[in-house]
Amino acid sequence: MKINNRKQRGATLVSWLIVASLGVMAASAVVKVAPYYVEFNNVKGLMRVIASTQGIKKANMRQINQKIEKHLTVNSLYALEDAYYNSRPNTPKKYKTKNPFTLKKDKKSSRRILTVAYDVPQSWIGNLFFLIKFKHAVVLGEPDVVIESKIDKSEGERKKRKLNLR
Q: Which residues pair with residue 120 across a beta bridge?
């Protein structure tokens, strides 16, 4: 009888199955989440179109909401549509959410800033969910101006001070 003293090289069937299952899980996560990021790019386009509309600098929130509703029905922005229509006054209390669109006036430059912020819960496997948070802001009348989110930074600063990290 011949004895083989060479050690085994390469992966076993079990290790290949583990790697393949991890790959399938990552692919399923991408398939579940990617459409919402594509939709968010369309939301950014919607915001840019609204910000570049003539006479929008003096428009009130009702007029802006009319423009938003027109774009929602045409562009099929389902996640934003759910968040927007669940914020309406006639929505049952069980489903009521905060309006994803806010209009603020910048104190320093007196520019008006339209912000959209909404969350998308997406189920993944069983009772595991992704919670995707989207936020974008534009200056009305200046669609190409990029605005940093000072709210997120100030929240982090407050948490650091509270934990005495600084």
A: 132
Give the torsion through C-alpha atoms of 10, 14, 16, 21, to 10 deg.
Answer: -160
* Annotated domain spans of the chain: 14-162
User: Environment class of residue 87 by beta-carbon count within 10 Å: exposed (0-12), middle (13-18) or buried (19+)?
Assistant: middle
**Helices 13-52 + 78-85 axis angle, to 10:** 60
Whether 81 and 68 have beta carbons less than 8 Å apart is answered as no
> Exposed, middle or buried, 23 (CB in 10 Å: 0-12/13-18/19+)?
exposed
Q: In what order do the strands lie in the sheet with 129-139?
A: 101-105, 112-123, 129-139
Among residues 67, 100, 64, the alpha carbon closest in space to that of 82 is found at 100
Residue type, 6: R
Q: Report CA dihedral (123, 127, 132, 133) to the nearest 10 degrees.
A: 130
pTM: 0.73
pLDDT band at 164 (very low <50, low <70, confident <90, very high): low
pLDDT in tens, 78-106: 888 888 888 887 778 777 778 899 888 88
The 3-state DSSP class for residue 104 equals: strand
